[in-house]
Amino acid sequence: MIIIKNYQEFEAYLGNELGVSGWHTITQEQINQFAEATIDHQWIHTDPERAATESPFKATIAHGYLTVSLLPYFWHQIADVQNLKMQINYSIDNIRFGQAVLVNSRVRLKARLAAIINLRGITKATIGVEMEIEGEKKPAYVGEVVFLYHFEG
After folding, report:
1. Which of 50, 58, 79, 82 has its CA 20 to 30 A from that of 103?
2. CB neighbours of residue 143 within 10 Å
3. pLDDT tens string 101-116
4. What distances in angstroms separate CA 48 from CA 63, 82, 109, 144, one per listed residue?
5. Could you tell me if 138 and 104 are in contact, meaning their C-beta atoms sit under 8 angstroms apart?
6. Using CA atoms, how far apart are residues 148 and 153, in angstroms rounded to an integer?
7. How many CA atoms within 13 Å lie on the side-chain side of 144?
């Protein structure tokens, strides 16, 4: 895990990989809880029996937005951004889903610092992200997430 305490420390990583998170297993329980929270009960996510016979994947799959919602969890395993007044989730850009995440798959996040600018004392960091699926060549998704960091002093 990297530790970042100010703009200058963050900027030193520009263009470089920031790190890789640990693995996380996507369970049917997690998929079902996400379906409840988002009111998205499409059978391809929530009906294992039907998915086994009718889905091209032969199993349930995680919601794409479930995998995206894990970004903060994984990001905090990669970087510990300290000395903050506040952090704002600013945007998620150009997310492209490459492959479905089957139930019981293990996923992790790779991150790199794609861009960083100082907006009158506010750090705008664009993080390139790629969610890997263990044992698969294609990622679940690639894209960018943008955070605004208000560092102390």
Report:
1. 79
2. 18
3. 999 999 999 999 999 9
4. 14, 42, 26, 32
5. no
6. 15
7. 14
